[in-house]
Queue: 4 jobs
Job 1
Amino acid sequence: MATGTVSPRARIADRRDDSPVPGKTPATRETRRTWRPTATADPLTLLGVSGSRGDLLRYLTVHPGERVYLRRLERLFGERSASLQRDLRDLTQVGAIRRVEPVEGRRVEYEVVRAWPLWGALRQVIATLSDPPTLTREALRGITGVDAAFVYGSFATGTAREDSDVDVFVVGERVDRARLHRALSEVAVLSGREVNPNVYTPAVLRERLTQPASPSRRFLRDVLAGPKQWVVGNGEALAPLAAAAGVARIP
């Protein structure tokens, strides 16, 4: 995945080791603010939005160019079709999404109406009420080939500041990198932060963890052993790799 600028304030980079990100300028002490993961419930409940509707709105915000259909949404969210049908119907009625009628017996699909007058405001609300790890979870939801993924660094330790990046670690055999890039680019735009994905296949990760001469070995061991917020899977998926590298436990 290539590095590219996605907005004046946010850039997505694909880092494969512990090398520094070029062109970074530290913020002054006066402009820094600490972010800590304190919410225990979905902040969208403050607006009377919860359950499947909140999940659907966040998903559409992070994947605005993607067409969705009922069965796929059921698999993604584990929700009953009745509640999702109601959410799709209501969002269609207010003009937020539109039905794409089936052709030759294909399924009914839905897509975001970006020209809807309230779309920009809705994106802003979702971005404000969703911390970067939550947005990252929605970005990776349903992306092919991702076995495990987590946010590490300052957003996992609760020490993130106004200028902090979002560091994402992704492991998978055949990750759909193009779709991953698009989704994480949306996270960068919504959060106003640089997103740094580190993407590895299990084989490459094992090699770099077990080769003493690997320049990224220490970095990878520290990341696996350190604090993290899981966005896909959990530590069990990476336990064999960690054990081979001598990492006793993945939190």
Job 2
Amino acid sequence: AQSGSLAAPGDCPALAAYEKHFRGILIEDEKVGEEDPQTLLTAGNLGCVLQAQGRLDEAEPLLRRALWGFGAKRGLHHPDTLVSTNNLASLLYAQDKFEDAEPLFRSVLSMTNLANLLSATGRRAEAE
């Protein structure tokens, strides 16, 4: 990119460094287990980096893996599952897969609103 111009998302050196970082961690994490929460977190982080680079087709299986894994391990209402749901919904939206993204966005919004209500009414443990 020329001086003073904006680089395309995929050209960002910081994103390339993050991608390399998360790919290395993912290799190590997978030795512990593909369904280990740390492995799922790393897969989701790598998916987000790939999405930021505009590599949506590469990001999708990683974000789905994180969502399915957290949903199975921690339940549908756990914060990690909700973040993963939102991340996948954002990716699907970016891919113009609006019908697939909408129910995911609705689910996250509903659960976030409920958690905020429970927390505000002193039922923080129930909100988590």
Job 3
Amino acid sequence: MNEKFHNSIKKAGEEISLTNAERVQMRRTLHSYMEMKPLRTSASAPVMTFGWLFTMRPVAAVLVLAVFVSSAGVSYASENALPGDVLYPIKIRVNEPVKGALAVSASAKTAWAMDVAGERVKEAATLAAEGRLNTKTQDELQVDFERHARQATVAMEENASSSPEVSGEAAVRFEAQLTEYENVLAQIGAAKDVDVVVLTSSVKSERERVAAVRARAESRIASTGKDQAAAERMGIAARAHLDTSVRLARAVSKSLSASSAELVAAQLEDASSTISAGETFAEREAIPDARGAFRKAISATEKLGVFLQTSSDIHARTGLVVGEPRKSKPGKKNEGRDDSQAVRAAATMNVSATSSTTTPPVETDTNVDVRKRGGDEQGIQQETEDRDEKTLPVSVPVHLGL
């Protein structure tokens, strides 16, 4: 592991080359971080500057940058960087390779490849929402997405023979993620009049490839008598993913409208109820039914996670927020969003690992609007029958297969 880590840092040092403009921007970023997080020491302490950083040899400089990347402020900035941002090279040439080098087990490597593949699609969606996704950038993101998606798929295939329950769970998660990324891309591309057909088609192809891997893993589970082991693993995973989705929903509540927050809360309750049903099946030794319930819950929470993360990123970069669902009756207008209502709705998301409350599933597809705070002139024009507002419609995944 140490050798892989060292090689990743060394390779990054050989490849990274900042332009003069990027060096200036990097200095500004570091100095801004220093001002935001000053050292708590005496007034007579010597003042440190970062000029020496840019005179060091590449490998040494990258090692120092890796330290900064691990700090809270710079790490957050680089993790959320997009193509064209100053910190983006650090994200893809340092952060991601280091994480990959630290992923030792087969399942960890699969999860890492899935995360990187999803990140490329999320970056494309966010750039599209900003109106700066050009053909060159889209092609580059697509190539990197396909490379990591296939790396994840190959890892699942290789692990399917010895541990089909592990591969099966990973495939369920990845298939659900790609399904929602496909929907998000299509919706944002249409709203912003950006051609993302090729990238969307690529995501669809990889999703179908993963679905085939999942089917083979499930067949292998049944033929090797590993139903119970698979059900137990998926039950634990379903609870973990549910808890993660609850925390995420609370964290990004301000990027949702009150109605969207209520829909999210209802979907989380549905997922919790499905998990409870799976546990009941397991107690009755109806193992295939238990595994099916857990699989549905995992798929639901993964789709919801993609929606929440993408919405949050778009909100952070553009100020766009998920607005109220469109009114079905003609003549009535959307009254806008109320942040306090959204926060209160998100605060009701008290789903826990022991929750078994049943909420009636939402049965109607709903389109929601991502809108600019205050409706200023930088919003996105979207004509509707009863109003002329600046909106970016994005589908909340109401149908989660529950």
Job 4
Amino acid sequence: MKNFFKTNLYYIIRLIGTQVGISIFAMMLQFATISASGSLFLLASVASVIFYFVLIYSTCWEMGYKNSERILAGRLVQSPFHGAYVQLAAYIPVILLVVLLWIGFAFSEMLWGGNLFLIVKWVLYLYYSVYYGIINTVLKSMSAADFQTVMYPLMYTVSLIPGIAVAGGAYYLGRKGIALFSKPKQNVD
């Protein structure tokens, strides 16, 4: 485990930085579109999610492409889920926040639980706002307030899956040298 973090720290930090950057980008889009209409707000959120997936894809594809040489040379053991594991490691702060959100929800009848739920919900909005427009639109379409409350932690939990899947797929494609976008230029030194 220690070796995993040591060898992949660059990509983990890069993915966390991507997440913070895209959260700021998503918040700016949401602030610009929230007063216009609900559909424009949703469209801005979907666009930021797609852009986020492109950034995850490019990082994990590059990692897979570079690791393919090490795998062929026998310096690295082949792992089909390596990209997904790296993205999961980059999601550790979000996973901890989602766990705290679930705890706050479970104890929301108590004052500290309700406060924890509200505070963590806002911290998640700031740190992981890329999905907020989609989550907000889905929750507004639901009628029961109690059902909306349980959907917050559930939707944030489910929102982790696509990023992990994109990272895993991108790593696999990079390892095989299959590019959806243009391949990086080879050094001809």
